[in-house]
Amino acid sequence: MRQVCLTIGGSDSCGGAGIQADLSVFEALGVHGCSATTALTAQNPKFISRIEPVSLAQLDAEIHAVFDYYDVAVVKTGMLLDAEHVAVVSALLHQLHKGMLVVDPVMISSSGRALLDQGGVDALNHALLPLATLVTPNLDEAAVLLGGAVVDPGEAAKRLVDQLGCAVLLKGGHGERDELLDLLCGLDGEITPFSHARQPWSESQSHGTGCRLASAIAAKLSLEESLTVAVAQGVAFLQGS
């Protein structure tokens, strides 16, 4: 029987990001994917034209339905929209989930649309991230979580671990160099670097890379890989896709 991963996040109408991307990654890596939806979006790789929040009652029901039937190994969260949705997700995971949690702190879309309001950021910090095994911010998201620009990525990763109490994968994809560096910082403060060339991806190929990376790591964790190995294999999967 395949391991089960649950993705909680927004629906992407073009399929390149959000829960659609997560489910495709789970399938590619041999795990069974379930989903709970926080918001419906009308979007393509260029822009998001509309966001419709899913009711809190529906989100609650979807999460309960999954846990009522499946033994969920790993949960991955993406777009959570606002403080109310973060609160529901946090409370239910605290109550129902005994496994690992990978949080992709989705705050701004690649097209520049805000996907998590300030209240949601505060709730993320205080309610959800204390439950996390791993958080996967890019440089811009790390700056929001830290309350200031990232100058030294290694120091920023360590500060985030101290602040959040979970391992951190600080992604370097928003950097300007051709050689990009992702930094995994564990609870002990030890940093493992993952270097890779900037890919000549098109706009549509770049869309949803953060979603796919976090879901690949979640899938590998469900297959009982260590955190360092899961991150390494997740990075390799993304680069090879």
Structure description:
With 241 residues, the protein is an alpha/beta fold. It has a single domain, classed as Ribokinase (UDP-N-acetylmuramoyl-L-alanine:D-glutamate ligase, 3-Layer(aba) Sandwich). Strands 3-2-1-4-5-6-7-8-9 form a 9-stranded mixed β-sheet, with helices on both faces. It comes from Mariprofundus aestuarium. Its EC number is 2.7.1.49. This is hydroxymethylpyrimidine kinase.
> How many structurally independent domains?
1
**Structural class of the secondary elements?**
alpha/beta
- Computed CA radius of gyration, to the nearest angstrom: 16 Å
Shape: globular
List the helices and strands and how they pair.
Layout: E1 4-12, H1 18-28, E2 32-43, E3 48-53, H2 56-69, E4 72-77, H3 83-96, E5 100-103, H4 118-128, E6 134-135, H5 139-146, H6 153-164, E7 167-170, E8 179-185, E9 191-197, H7 203-206, H8 209-222, H9 227-240
Parallel strand pairs: 1-2, 1-4, 4-5, 5-6, 6-7
Antiparallel strand pairs: 2-3, 7-8, 8-9
Helix pairs in contact: 1-8, 2-3, 3-4, 5-6, 8-9
Give descriptors for this structure.
single chain, nine-stranded mixed β-sheet, alpha/beta, globular, 241 residues, 9 strands, UDP-N-acetylmuramoyl-L-alanine:D-glutamate ligase, 24% strand, 9 helices
At a glance:
Pathway: Cofactor biosynthesis; thiamine diphosphate biosynthesis. The chain has 241 residues and is of the alpha/beta class.
